[in-house]
Amino acid sequence: MNLDFSWLADPYYQYWLLRGLGTTILMSVLGLVLMMVIGIAGALIIHLRVPVLATWTTLFVEMFRNTPPLVQLFFLYFMLSEMGLTLTDPATGQRIPIFSGFTCAVLSLGLYNGALAIEIIRSGLLAVPSQTVEGARSLGYSRVQTFRYIELPIGLRLSMPAMTNNVVSLIKTSNQAALVAVADIMYTATQIMLENFRNLEVMIFVWVVYVALSSLAVVAMRYIDRLIRIPGYGAVA
Amino acid sequence: MVTAVTRVNAPKSRRKWQLASLVSLACAIGATAIPAKADQLEKVKERGKLVVGIKTDYPPFGYLGADGQVKGFEIDIAKFVAKELLGSADAIELVPVVASNRIELLNAGRIDAIFATLGTNPDRAKIIDFTHEYYQMEGMVLLTSKDSAITAWEEVKGKKLCGIQGNLYNRTLTEKFGAETVLFAGTAEMFKAFQDNRCEGIAFDGPILNMKVAEDGWKDKYKIAVGAFAFNPIAGGVRKGEVAFLEAVNKAITDAEAKGVLVASEKTFNMGASEYVAKRAEEAKAKAN
């Protein structure tokens, strides 16, 4: 088996790959931010049993956790405009879909992994010892203050290992954006494969890129985990 | 006591398993690297079935009819080849392929031949063998809305154009004409994205767009704004080095041409009688006599 990586020297391909890598990273970072916002807000609502909203959040979790992320992406990309969610393009005066392919990809990542994040953070909150919570309550902390100063800080720390999984899963899921023509690393790799037929080499390259990105995320999460650890809480890594 | 013994032995046996799996993995990779030397023609005859990669979303070449049957110009060719090779037009398995996976499927041995609007070009000829060319395909044309101002390929610079991954002309479109391509895997997604105004036009093979623009719901809204910038012959594809198989398939295609199968097929699928197919039929007939 002789592997030929000479295509990596083509400046046109280098430009494609770098741009693709940039898109993948940007998409993942924005997806992660959205995921954390949804995760914390959702966990807060369910944990504090906010009337009406808690029911809606549970519905949200069930809906987005129990459907494939690709279906969600296709729904956002192809179906929303069907349902009339369009805006007028100031340049051409045409009705165009409200979300671009990139926005749809970020939204689907944030919503799908956000739904999982709600449950992960909630499990962390439930693992906070009841004595600690009761201690805070007896010292005069209100329900919201207890959440803000006691349950959330400890709960987030306890949910770090599961959250690391979720972060890695988000980065890997981002490659489905290629299916709605977002020029991420997978999309550009497909283009290159179709031109030079070096399928094995290009796939190895893509593989290495995702391993590197995911490993980087894992290392970063471990670092954060160590930085914020409270002695006596959580497993020793 | 027993548990202690197994615990001591466990790492060693695990290592052995890892080694074994590594070796088998290496063998598997090695095996795929060495092309099978068994004669393809013999294999097909032994199997009694020809496995062909065809399009199912590409009228008039290969598409799913209203009756649920796959039909089209290239399906007719494939069936004729099966009949010549194996004696029956039904001794065939049709495998739906798309532009981006057909060559991979062929070289991985999942299909025996490609009859899926495969344009000939030198890059592809390096990794597969082409059969006789059987159709002259109108290259990329541009479909836009009726009120679009685009009249030439030079005017698509910076514009978003929908297309299909793996098309021969995508690179020309970006490199030469400076268009921004929005590429999908299948035609359904491409048409939907265009109708949603995600791109200003569709740049894709002539035959399929010419047919689309004549459809109800499309004909009063859209037009073919710019004609083809190239013509490209299409041919079947087989794995490299299968001389006997290639020869048999080529003979079947020539026979199909001589017997007027392709001319009839053009008529059945409303493709218009092309000079190219008629000429090839004449030549094939002359050769047969």
Automatic annotation (TrEMBL), chain A:
TM annotation in the entry: 21-50, 70-87, 99-121, 202-224
Top-level lineage group: Bacteria
Annotated membrane topology: Multi-pass membrane protein
A single GO cellular-component term on record: ATP-binding cassette (ABC) transporter complex
Keywords per UniProt: Amino-acid transport, Cell membrane, Membrane, Transmembrane, Transmembrane helix, Transport
InterPro entries: AA_ABC_transptr_permease_3TM (IPR010065), ArtM/GltK/GlnP/TcyL/YhdX-like (IPR043429), MetI-like (IPR000515), MetI-like_sf (IPR035906)
The keyword Isomerase is assigned to this record: no
Domain ABC transmembrane type-1 residue range list: 21-221
Biological process (GO), any one: amino acid transport
GO molecular function, one term: transmembrane transporter activity
Predominant location category: membrane
Family classification: Belongs to the binding-protein-dependent transport system permease family. HisMQ subfamily.
Protein name (database record): ABC transporter permease subunit
Lineage: Bacteria, Pseudomonadati, Pseudomonadota, Alphaproteobacteria, Hyphomicrobiales
Automatic annotation (TrEMBL), chain B:
Keywords: Signal, Transport
Domain of life: Bacteria
GO biological process: amino acid transport
One Pfam family per UniProt: SBP_bac_3
Domain Solute-binding protein family 3/N-terminal: 49-272
The UniProt record lists the keyword Transport: yes
Family the UniProt entry places it in: Belongs to the bacterial solute-binding protein 3 family.
Protein name: Transporter substrate-binding domain-containing protein
Organism taxonomic ancestry: Bacteria, Pseudomonadati, Pseudomonadota, Alphaproteobacteria, Hyphomicrobiales
